[in-house]
Amino acid sequence: MGKTSKDKRDIYYRLAKEEGWRARSAFKLLQIDDEFKILEGVTKAVDLCAAPGSWSQVLSQRLNTASEGNEGKSKIVAVDLQPMSPIFGVTQLRGDITEVSTANEIISHFDGEKADLVVCDGAPDVTGLHALDEYLQSQLLLAALNITTHVLKDNGSFVAKIFRARHVTLLYAQLKCFFKEVFCAKPKSSRQSSCEAFVVCRGYCPPEGYVPTMKNPLFCDDYDEEVNQLTGPNKVLVPFVACGDLSGFDSDRTYPLDLSELGDAFKGHHYQYRPVVQPPTEPAYKKALELKKTDRLEKEHASKVKETYAKSGSSANNRPADSSAVDERASALVDEDVLEGFASVILG
Fold first, then answer.
1. Looking at residue 155, what DSSP letter applies?
2. Burial class of 39 by CB neighbour count within 10 A (0 to 12, 13 to 18, 19+)
3. Is 55 annotated as a binding residue?
4. Which phi and psi angles does 213 have, rounded to 5°?
5. Cα–Cα–Cα angle for 29, 15, 195, nearest 5°?
6. Is 53 annotated in some ligand binding site?
7. Domains and CATH numbers, the chain
8. For 105-129, what is each residue's pLDDT tens digit?
9. Which helix (H) or strand (E) holds 180?
10. Confidence of residue 35 (pLDDT cuts 50, 70, 90)
11. Is 121 marked as binding a ligand?
């Protein structure tokens, strides 16, 4: 697998580097805006879970272009617990979106006013256990909704990632209580094989007497019983909209590196490999990479492993019956620095 393999498999990954976006997810927000025009008239926007910053780039580019001649009119605040490299026209805030103090700090950057738009492309580190991943994503979306009720002005808009799953109607019902319109959008740049979609909510109008709170509405003793008690407006059907140019690139298809092979529309397009626009600033696997660069991740202990195998009286392909010998062989594989490196990857 060479450097260009992913460029060939994923056309949006390649285009993101060519056009200067920090991640391919930028195309998702661009296509959502093309379909719903969510950025029209927006002067104050919040990007939750913003790192590495591709959605903030889109907001900066489109809002600053839309307000050309009115320098300083558009204000954008990007929020994340992780550090993020600077973006022109974007105020960065390291904070927890489940804390009221974060909401207050966002409003302070808008001089006491509330935002016209809140977007969130955040997602948990997937485990591969679909039920758990879907639950964690729903909790993250509700956390984003909770802070949105603190910082979004009446009739404002909210866009967030969602996993379409068995209990997704409960999330739709919660959102419908706060917004006049709720759509489930699937951008063309989002792989069809993925359950990922985006809720596009317009016309923020909280229930009469509602007081914003950070409490999670899904924390209940019996989830199924709670869902079955929903009646009336809580059970709603949300329109599903596929957005983006349907005749454009297919995110699930593999394309040739030289797009000119596709026809005259791409005549003169010559492939050139480009590194990613903005690599992670503080990746969880940073320690493991440092160990690997110095050959300490695996090679340093090869002799220890062979020696321990010999002491246990077994070959490298046979497992000794003595459990203590197994433990000794395993401990010979890594030292404290290597363990720390692996732990940073697994535990974050």
1. E
2. buried
3. yes
4. -145, 155
5. 50
6. yes
7. 11-206 (3.40.50.150), 210-273 (no CATH)
8. 999 999 999 999 999 999 888 888 8
9. strand 179-187
10. very high
11. yes
SS3 333: helix
**Catalytic residue list contains 287:** no
Q: Which residue has the higher pLDDT, 1 or 257?
A: 257
The set of long-range contacts for 252-261, using a CB threshold of 8 Å and a minimum separation of 24, is 252/191, 252/192, 252/193, 253/11, 254/8, 254/9, 255/8, 255/11, 255/14, 256/8, 257/4, 257/7, 257/8
Cβ atoms within 10 A of the Cβ of 323, count?
A: 8
pLDDT digits (tens, 9 = 90+) for 59-118: 999 998 755 555 557 999 999 999 999 999 999 999 999 999 999 999 999 999 999 999
pLDDT digits (tens, 9 = 90+) for 235-282: 555 666 778 777 788 888 898 888 888 888 888 888 889 998 988 888
Q: Could you give the 3-state DSSP secondary structure of residue 156?
A: strand
Catalytic one of 114, 161, 176, 287: 161
CA distance 190 to 280: 21
Give the pTM: 0.70
Instruction: Name the token pair of 157.
Output: 């808009």
Helix (H, G, I), strand (E, B) or coil at 196: strand
Beta bridge partners of 163: 196
**CA 4/CA 14 separation, integer angstroms:** 9
